[in-house]
Amino acid sequence: MALGYWINLGVPDILSVVVCKLIFESNTYSNRMMRSTISTGVSAGACIEVFGPYFQKKGDWNMGVFSESVEVVCSPAGQPIRLRWQNRNWHIAAEPVRWYERRKWWAEELRAERGRGAGLVDHEIWRVQARLNSRSELRTLDLSHQADTGRWRLIRVHDALQRLSA
Amino acid sequence: MSFTHLHVSSAFSAHYGVSWPDELVAAAAGDGADALACTDRDGLYGTVKHVKACLAAGIDPIVGVDLAIRGSQGQSTGRVVVLAHGHNNGRGYHALCRLISDAHEGTASGRGAKGREPGVDIAEIAHRAAGSLESSDAGSPAVLTVLLGPYSDVGQALRHRRYAEARRLAGRWRSIMPAGSLVLEVVNHLSPPGENLSTAHAVRMLKLAADLKLPAVLTNAARYRQVDDAATADVLDSVRALTALAKLPDLQPNGQGWLKSSAQMQVLAQETAQEAGTGRAGAVELLAMTETVADRCRMDPYQDMGYKNPVVPEASVIGIGQDPVTELIQRCETGITARFPGISGKAEHELRDRLAHELGIITRLGFASYFLTVAEVSKIITDMGVRASARGSGASSLVNYLLFISHVNPLAHGLIFERFLSRDRSTLPDIDIDVESAERHNVYRRIFARFGDRRVTLMSMQNGYRARGAVRDAGLALGMEEEDISGIAKQLWRFSARKFREAMEEKPELRDFSAQVEQNKQLDLLVDVTERLDRLPRHISMHPCGVILGDESLLDRTPVQPSGLGLPMSQFDKHDMDPMGMLKLDVLGVRMQSSMAYAVNEVVRIHSGKAAVTAAGNHPVDAGGNGPGYIAEDGRIDLEAVPLEDEETFELIRSTHTLGCFQIESPGQRELVGKMAPRNFNDLIIDISLFRPGPMKSDMVRPFLEQRHGWAPENYPHADLETVLKETHGVTVFHEQVLRTFDVFTGCGLARADEFRRLLGDEAAEPTVEEYFRRQAMDRGYSVDIIDKIWNTLKAFGSFGFCKAHGAAFAVPTYQSAWLKAHHPEAFLAGLWEHDPGMYPRRLLVAEARRMGIPILPLNINRSADMYRVERIPADKGEPEKLGIRLSLASIYGLSAAELKRIVAGQPYDSLADLRARAKVSRPTLQRLAKLGAFDELNQLAGRKGTATRADLVHHLDKPPVRPVPRRYEPIDGQLSFSLGDLELSNLKTCLPEPTMLEKVRTELDLLAVDVSAHLMDSYAPLLKELNVTAAKDLLSLRNGTEVLVAGIRVATQTPPMRGGRRVVFISVDDGTGCVDCTFFHEAQDKAGPLLFGTRLMLIQGLTRRTGPRGMSLQATNAWDLSRPETLPLAHPAETPVPAREQPHLQLPDRAMLVGLNISG
Q: What angle do CA B677, B679, B680 make, to 5 degrees?
C-alpha cells in the first residue's frame, strides 16, 4: 500500500499502472487496506487515470475481486453492444467473447439447496472491447452477468495487460 | 429441427451421472426430440430403464457406453463413447455387450479388490465393431460407432494444442477401426479460454475433422438433466476421487453439461462454427451429421435387444431328451405317485382337474422349459444334501408341488394358480428358493458347473445412497472433519436424506441436532448437499440371491463383470430382468434353514438311531413299537415329511415362548400369536398373513380376532361369500379371497380377477375396475347396498392383504422350527446359536436356553469344538441324564481361524504345555481361554488338594513365557510323552480367590458377547430393588392397567407402519426373567427423547396391558438410561448407596453384536 503511494508521486506511467494493478489484483490485499488508500486521497499519477473511479466510488468485493455494477444493453441475439459505466456510455466494438467460469460455491455459498438453479456452480463472463468514442482507445473489460437477477458487473479491466503484450 | 443427444450419462454411471433415465427421456421428449442416447460409464447399467422410458415416451432409444481406452502399456489414454447400430437383428447390441464384457475382464470386483480398472484397447473395439465372425466379409458394415471426443487421447492432445500429435492419434484410430465407424465428437461447454471444453477446444476438434475428412457430430457430454444439478455433479466428482472439493484438481470446468434443448444446441453449433470460420453452413452440417449418426444407431428394442422375449436354457442342457411339454407331464405323473400315494375318487378328480388347468396355461405360454429348469436347479440343490424350499407365490402351483420345487399342497390350502401365473401374463413368473445360508455359495458354484458359464450369470444390484452414507460423502466433499461428520451421520442414519429438514422439525430425537444446524452455517450446507445425494446409486454389488439362467446367447444380451465370488455378474439388476426376458431365480440363503439342517444333524449325532430319537423327542410310537416314518433308521428326521398337526408344536406356539422360531419371534408377532392362539397349520398361515403393513394399517386384525374368539358374531357381507371368507371368519385377508370375491360377483374368471387386484390402489385405473365391478354385479342381480359394501372392502383392500401362498410358504419353516423347538430343543438351540438367524442377539437365545432349563456348558479346551454342540450330561445325584449345549471356541473374541483349526485338530490336550506345543496358540489366546474357564477342568484333574483357582491360572499365564525349547530338543513326530498330567497346573500356587460371578460374566461379555454364567442384569439387582422394578415373569399376575417399572437390556426396536400414520416405537427389553415388550406412543417418545434409539440398558415406566391369555405388554410413559444412575428417578437420591468399587454394575462392551438394534418397519 505504501509502495503504491510512493509510486504515484513520481514513477513513470506504465510502471506505476502495472504495480498498482498488481497490488490491486492480488487477492491478499484486504478491504481495509484499499479503503485506507482511498482515504489518503491520492490524486496524481497514471494510476488514478485508470483506477481512479474505483478509488473514488464505493464498489464491491466479489469473488475476491473488486467489482462494480454497470448497465449493459444487448442485441436481440443476446450480445452486449453498449455499456454504461460511471455515467459514461461505452460502445462495444469487436465481437465479444463469452464463457462460463466456475465458482467455488462450497466456500462462498451459505446454501446450495436443490432447485437453486443457474448461477451456483458457474457464472457467465463476457470479455468485451469498448471505447468511449471513435477516437478513444479500446479497453478490454470483463463483465459478469448474473443469470438470476440479470444484473451486470464489471469485474476486470485489462488495458495494462494489453499494452504489456503489445 | 430436433437435436439428438448422443453422449448422455444417467445416474447409473456411479458417482458421475446425476439424473435418472426416465427424467432424461422426459426432458428430451418434452423438448421435441425423437431419440435419446444413454451412454453410461463402463456399462449398460441404466440402459434397460432408458429403453423402457423411451418406449413409454414414444421416442427411439440409442444405446451405448462410455469406455476407457488402454494404451500399449496398459495405462489409460482417455475415454470414448461407443454406440451400437440398430435395426440389424441385434448385431450392434450383441457387439456392444461383448465389448463391455471384454472391458471388465480381469478387473477389480469392488473397492479394495485387486485388479485393474475397466478398459479396452483400440484393437478390441475394432474387432467388435466389425461384427461377428460369420458375417465379416469385406462388404459388411460396421456395427458400432466410436465417438472421439474431448476426453479421448485426440481430444486431450487438442486441448493442449499439440496438433501434430492429435493428427497422428486420429490417424491411428482411423487405420485400425473399420470403415465408417469413427466419428469425431465436438463438445462445447463454453469454458474459460484455455480450459477443457472451451469454444477454442471445440473449434480445434471441428477443424481436425475437416482436415482429416472425418465426420463430426455435436454433443453436450451431458451428465445431468438441468443446470441445477451441476453442483451435485461436483459433489459426485469429489466423492469419486475421495478428495474434498477444495482440493480436487480436475473438477468440471463449469456447470454447462446438462441436457440442453435443441434451441440451445443450435446456438452452440452456431457459436462454434462461427469461431471455426465455417459460419452458418458449418453449423448446419454439424447438426445434420449428428442426426445422420443418430439415425443409424436407433434401436429396435424387440428385434435388436430381445426386449420382452423370454429365453430359457436349451432342452438338452436341462437334461431333456424329448419335447419339454411331454417331459413335464411325465414328471407330474411321477410327482402324483410320490406326493399323493393312493389317492382316488373325488380327491383324485379334483387333483387331476387342477393339474390339467395348470398344464394348459403353462403349455399355452410356452413355459414348460422354465418349470423344468427350475426343477433341475431344485434337484441340483437337494442332491447336494442342502435344504431347499420355494417361497412366495410359487407355492400356489400344483406343478411346483409335484416337481418338489415347493412343499406346500396348494389344494389343501385353497391357493390359486392365477396368483402365480395366468394366461394373460406373458412374463416369466418369479420363483424364489430358500436354501441353507451357509451353503449358498456352494449352490451357486454347482449351478454354474452344471449349466456352464456361458448360460449362467449372477445378478447385480444398485445400492443407493442412504442418509448415513450421504452425510459422510457430503461431509467429505465439503472438507469437514471426520469426527464431526461421524457424529452427525450417527444421528441421521434412520431418515432418508431427502427428508432431512422435515425430519429435523418433527422428530423429537433430532431436537439437539436441529439446534446445532441453526448455529453452524456449514451444517446448513451439509444438509443441502446431503439431500442432493439422496438415493443416487452409490455402488453396484452382487445381488445376494439372484441367478440368471439363459441359453447360449445370454452373453450376447447382457454384459458381465466380475463379482466378489469369482463368478461373472450381469450388469442388469432385478428391474431389468423382465424387460430383457431373462430367467431369474432367487436363491436365498436363509439362516433358519441352516439352523434346522444343523439341528437335524445334531440329533443324528447325539442319539444312536431311530429308537433313541423317537424316545428323546417324545414322538408317537405305533402298535409295533416303531417310531414314525419321518425318522430314518439312523435317526435322521425328514422335516418335509413331519405331519403338520402336531399338538405339542401348537401348544408351544400358543405359549408365546417362540423366541428363535422363524417369523413368530418378534414382540408384535408374539402378541398376535398369543391373542390368536393358532390351532392348526392354516391358522399359522393366517397369522403370518395378518402381520403385515396392510392388515395392521387397515384394522383387519381386530375384527378378525373378535370374530374368531366368538366375541362378535361372524359377519359375512353376503351369503355367496361364505365359502370364500369362512377360514378368516368373514374378514378379507388374502389376495386369493379378493380374486374369488371378484369372480363370484362378476364371473370374470380368476385370471382377470388377478389383474383387477393389481389395479386396485392405482388411482388412474381403479375407477375402470370399479365401473366394471358394479356393472357386472348389477347384471348378476346383487343389490346396490351389497355392491357398495363389497366394493368398499375391495377398495380398502387396495394393495393390502397378503398372498396366501406367500404365507403358506413361510408357514412351513415356521412350523418346522417350532416343531424342532418343541421336540428337540437342545439341538435346535445349538443350531440357532451356530447360525444366528432371527432378529435377536445370540445372548438372548442363550438366555432362552437358561429359561428353558437347558444346561449351558462352559468352554472347555477338550470338550468344546469349533461349533456349538449338544452334549450328554450323565445322570448325577438324583438328576436324570440331560442334554446340554456346549459353548463353541469359535465365538471367542480375537481367536484367529487358523488357531481355532489347530486347537480343534489337536484335541484332546492333557496339559497346557501340550496345548502350547501342538496347537501353537498365542499368549493372548491362552489368557483368554483361561479367563473364560476353558482350563478349569484340566486344572481340576491336575490338582492336588487346594487347587489353584482360575484367577491363579490367569495370573500365571500373565507372566512372560519361557524361552522355547531349541529345535534339537523338540520331540520328533509321533514320539509319545509320559502321562504325567499337567505339571504346570498341578504346581500352581494358590493365592488369588476364585473370580466372582460378576467378574466372570464381565469377562464372558467381553470375550464372547454372551453372558453365560449368569444374566447380566443380575448385577443390577440391588438397584432394581431400590427402584421397585417388576420382573418380567411377574407381570402376568398383575391387573391390567397397573403402573410399573421394568428394566433390562434392549433386545429389539421396531417401528412398524401403523394406522393413522403416527409413528409408534416398540422396544423390547430382557431382564433375565423374560422379555417385556413396551410400546411408545407419541408422548412417551417425546419424553424419552434421544434415549429412544440410543440407550442399551433401559428403565421404563408404563401401564400394563393385557394382550391375550398369556401375554402382557407395557404401554410406556417414560424411560431412563439405566447405566446413568444419576438420572434415575430414585425415591431418596441422597441415600442411594454409591455402587461400591468392588460391586460395580456391568456394562455392555461397545460392540454392536451384543444388542439387537434391528430397526424394521
A: 135
Quickly tell me which residue has 431347499 as its cell.
B388
Of A42-56, B271-285, B645-659, B672-686, where does mean pLDDT reach its minimum? A42-56
Q: Which domains does chain B carry?
A: 21-305 (3.20.20.140), 466-535 (no CATH), 853-864+881-964+982-1008 (no CATH), 1016-1160 (2.40.50.140)
Residues of B in contact with A116 (CB under 8 A): 228, 231
Q: How does pLDDT run across A8-26, given as a tens digit for each residue?
A: 333 444 444 444 444 444 4
Q: How far is A12 from chain B (nearest CA, A)?
A: 33
Last residue of a domain, one of A38, A58, A78: A58
Please report residues of B whose CB lies closer than 8 A to that of A122: 230, 254-256
Give the range of the structural domain holding residue A48, as residue numbers without chain letter: 1-58
Element (H, E) at B268: helix B262-276
Average pLDDT value for residue range B496-509: 72
A76 CB near a chain B CB, below 8 Å?
A: no
Q: Are residues A49 and A14 in the same domain?
A: yes
Residues 6+ apart with CB under 8 A from B191: A99, A100, A101, B197, B198, B201, B253, B254, B256
Q: Please check whether residue B1053 touches A, CB under 8 A.
A: no
How far the first Cα of chain A sits from its last, in Å, is: 28
Interface touch A112/B253, C-beta < 8 Å: no
Closest alpha carbon within chain A to B527: A113
- Nearest CB to B227 within list A105, A107, A118: A118
Structure ipTM: 0.72
Q: Chain B: nearest CA to A98, how far in angstroms?
A: 7
Of B193, B255, B521, the CB nearest to A110: B521
Q: Is the pLDDT of residue B192 over 60?
A: yes
* Interface residue A100 vs chain B (CB under 8 A): yes
pLDDT tens column, B433-471:
999 999 998 999 999 999 988 899 999 999 998 878 888
What would the pLDDT profile of B1031-1063 be if each residue is shown by its tens digit?
A: 888 888 888 889 999 999 888 888 776 666 678
- The residues that bridge with B107 in the sheet, in sequence order, are B116
Give Cα B4 to chain centroid, integer Å: 39
Q: Which residue of B lies nearest to A113 if distances are taken between CA atoms?
A: B528
**Residue from the list A101, A113, A118 with its beta carbon closest to the beta carbon of B528:** A113
Own/partner pairs, B793-796, CB within 8 angstroms, 24+ separation = B793/B717, B793/B732, B793/B741, B794/B732, B794/B738, B794/B741, B794/B742, B794/B760, B795/B760, B795/B766, B795/B770, B796/B698
- The beta-carbon neighbor of A98 closest among B190, B230, B251 is B190
Using an 8 Å CB-CB cutoff, list chain A residues near B253.
102
